[in-house]
């Protein structure tokens, strides 16, 4: 019996050691976005990375020549940093506005709906109109992709984030217009064009 207890106790660290990185969604500047599904899968700029665990609280995800260091802090939150060739390195920042999940991990797509969830939109809101329109949903997905690329190219620029939040507020002002769908469509097309021209990105 004592041998069985000792064996069980000896297996506890191994079980915790095998725990995969928790879910997270981080922006790493020009390196791109880093996403973890919390089940052991980590993607770097949309590419599946090879994950290696060195301790119960530290992992490294490698994609090409980019190495992502993942550390679980005492409060349970992850700290993410990156290392690229020529000694390029930096710290990644948590990203709430753009999902860096690969297409297979996302619940929405250009053909099924907008970039946001339609499950809890307010009745009569501009979000509801977008969810009901295939054209507007496709434009929303296109803008989300364009914004994501602009965010990466701008090195996670805080001003760009503020501008995007301001644009969303302006978009929602389309409720005042008689032709709300046309107003929304114009707003999306103008914002997409603006981001493409300013940051040199394509969606």
Automatic annotation (TrEMBL):
The keyword Amino-acid biosynthesis does not apply. GO terms for cellular component: extracellular region. Pfam families: LprI. Residues 118-195 form the Lysozyme inhibitor LprI-like N-terminal domain. Keywords: Signal. Residues 1-18 form the signal peptide. This is DUF1311 domain-containing protein.
